[in-house]
Design a protein that fits this description.
Elements (H helix, E strand, L loop, with lengths): L1 H9 L8 E4 L3 H4 L17 H23 L6 E6 L11 H12 L4 E5 L5 E2 L2 E2 L1 H20 L8 E7 L3 E7 L6 E2 L12 E5 L2 E3 L1 E8 L2 E6 L7 E5 L9 E2 L45 E5 L5 E3 L2
Parallel strand pairs: 1-2, 2-3
Antiparallel strand pairs: 4-5, 6-7, 6-16, 7-12, 8-14, 9-10, 9-13, 11-12, 13-15
Length: about 300
């Protein structure tokens, strides 16, 4: 920031900081050794501690931006949920910390998860990097340029019945669709259920409204019920909205040795070489628990 400010001053230009972007969490999901605040600490995977660290970081960054650039307004702070190859827990503590920060802290904007874009071993490939950039640009246009609010595709209410979970979502561009061409088809479209800590069999997942999905299980629940989407061992899902926002750049055909294991296709099954990156908003990864006696969770 100091370098940018000095360069602008020498050139007789004015400059402000209008956006920070945050794509992080891999080491925390892994509880990477010696990657905490000191060399003797592991990276925290405690959801609340991570949120506290992140919110303090945002406070410090914004204070620095205002001090260096002399601006009165806060910059934006755009976040993504990090790569799924680094997950190790069904509860997805860090993914949930990021999701919750986006809801709780109005200084932040959660843009998207990374699982719908292409990667090689967890690291985004060149197409994946450009693709996330297009998602960022779409939200930048709405939030920074137009001054409008943005909220990603995510649950807002979960209702438990005898043998099913009804999930009402915030959907940026309804209706919900099951997309099995941009992202490879996944069992139960990426949903997992546990009953009293044990994996529970899902009999079907159905779109039951333009912003609602019902996850029905093969037998009635008998205790604490947990529901997750694109969690550890699953890694991604097929739930997205119907957004037709057009990207400015196209998906590129890479040399064979650099291509990902799965490449996005159109609905006819053709890889989207030289076509715009699809910018449907995919559901964020999430985990929620409904203990015995609690049949409804109102998330926001």
């Amino acid at each position: 920031m100091n370098s940018a400010k000095n360069t602008a001053t020498v050139s007789g230009k004015s400059i402000i900081m209008n956006l920070f972007t945050w794509t992080q969490g891999e080491y925390n999901s892994l509880q990477q050794a010696n990657q905490g605040w000191t060399n003797s600490q592991n990276a925290t995977n405690d959801r609340n501690q991570y949120k506290a660290y992140l919110k303090q970081l945002i406070t410090d960054l914004f204070a620095d931006a205002k001090s260096v650039f002399g601006q009165d307004e806060n910059p934006g702070f755009f976040m993504t949920q990090h790569g799924t190859n680094y997950l190790r827990k069904f509860e997805m503590f860090i993914q949930m910390a990021l999701l919750e920060t986006g809801i709780e802290d109005d200084r932040t904007t959660m843009v998207c998860s990374l699982y719908p874009v292409t990667n090689r071993g967890g690291h985004l490939d060149p197409n994946g990097q450009r693709w996330v950039g297009e998602y960022m640009a779409k939200v930048y246009n709405q939030v920074i340029l137009k001054g409008e609010k943005w909220m990603p595709f995510q649950p807002k209410k979960i209702t438990k019945t005898a043998d099913a979970l009804i999930i009402d979502f915030h959907v940026p561009q309804p209706p919900i669709i099951f997309n099995t061409w941009t992202v490879q088809s996944k069992a139960n479209y990426g949903f997992s259920v546990r009953n009293n800590g044990t994996a529970f069999t899902i009999s079907r997942v159905t779109i039951t409204g333009p912003t609602q999905i019902t996850v029905k299980c093969s037998t009635p629940f008998s205790g604490d019920v947990e529901i997750a989407y694109a969690t550890y061992g699953v890694l991604y899902g097929n739930v997205c909205d119907s957004d037709t926002y057009r990207s400015l750049t196209n998906y590129k055909q890479l040399p064979v040795q650099l291509r990902p294991a799965w490449e996005p296709k159109d609905e006819s099954g053709v890889i989207i070489y030289d076509k715009p990156y699809p910018l449907n908003n995919f559901c964020l990864q999430f985990y929620y628990k409904l203990p015995v006696g609690k049949n409804i969770i109102n998330i926001f």
